Amino acid sequence: MAESKSELLQSLRIERSDAIPRPAARRRLRAWMAIVVALVAVVGPLGLFTYAPSEYRQSVYRQFAFPFSIHRQEAQVSAEQATLAPAPAVTAPPARGLAASGYVVARRKATVAAEVTAKVVEVQVHEGMMVKKGDVLARLDSVLPERDIAVLRSKADAAEATIGAVTADLQDAQRIMNRNLRLRQGQIVSEADVTKSEARVGVLRAQLKQAQAAFETAKHDAKHAAEVLDQYTIHAPFDGLVVERDAQPGEMISPLSVGGFTRTGICTLVDMDSIEVDVDVNETFIGRVYLGMPVSAVLDAYPDWTIPASVIAIEPSADREKGTVKVRIGLKKKDPRILLGMSVKVSFEDVSAAIDTSAENSAAAH
Asked: For 62, 156, 281, 350, which has the most beta carbons within 10 A of its beta carbon?
């Protein structure tokens, strides 16, 4: 049965007499061209690399790290040494300092004015002029006070002359009284003459006291008039710089504003030794600020100039609207380039935090 099945299958097989045709000559040509192009693509860069400069080859070696290359071996050796070496101490990054901005101000600034109402006759200062305490800044019209002081001095002289006259009369009356007292013992003069002479002495003594009082009053009046006259000459109250000239000769000046063209000041004087910086620090960071804290100040006008400074005061109240606290910065270096009202940027340097960080770093290194 099996043999019949195999014979049947053999009978069904189709015998093909033609062989598989070989590829055409054109197809073989294309295959050889593809092989040649591939060889050129591979061998060409290798040839160029062989004749390239040594620096270029070294850079390629480093970039691709070819196996068994010297740079690959050096990299492996450095990696092994790095694993064997102890890890360096980790240093904490420096804390970012607190910064703020503000303006140059003066703690001692005054608008110098007169204590009386008068006309300006002369102004002897101008903007940018340095003055000393007591220097004359301006003069006012003082004709009337000069006349008043002359009258009062005359009254004082008259009172002094009255004292001299009364004193002379009193001395004469005292001699008469003493003589009558001696003669009364010998009953040469009457008791009435003695009483009259004593009364005369008493009256003259009273007149002398009155004249002395009048003289003292006249002296005080003359002194007051001299002080009033001195108010017509405006003096500098302290050493400083004139930053503004307000009055001109011929204008009226008064300590009170009365309207019209009446001025209330001669000039504005600033004590340059009291120059400092006022900055507003956010109340969130005010806890990091303390008295004596070192500060670096930089003027916007001179960005390459750092001025050493320190915190001299922290205002005891905060601004509700801005949420800031005013901090006063004292400049350790005075310079004519620092002008009133200049913008300043300050950087607070926390020395204590820097010391703690350095201590931690040194401890970690050991």
From this structure: 281
Which tokens is 260 given? 């019209």
Structural domain boundaries enclosing 191? 143-226
3-class secondary structure per residue, 162-196: HHHHHHHHHHHHHHHHHHHHHHHHCCCCCHHHHHH
Is the full-model pTM beyond 0.70?
A: no
As a whole number of angstroms, the distance between CA 31 and CA 35 comes to 6
**The amino acid at 302:** Y
* Count helices and strands in the chain by DSSP H and E runs: 7, 14
Q: What is the mean pLDDT of residues 28-37?
A: 71
Q: Give the C-alpha separation, 330 to 333, whole Å.
A: 9
Q: At what angle do helices 191-230 and 143-185 cross, to 10 degrees?
A: 160
Assess if residue 183 is contained within a domain: yes
In a domain, 101, yes or no: no
The partner residues of 277 in beta bridges, in order of sequence, read 104, 329
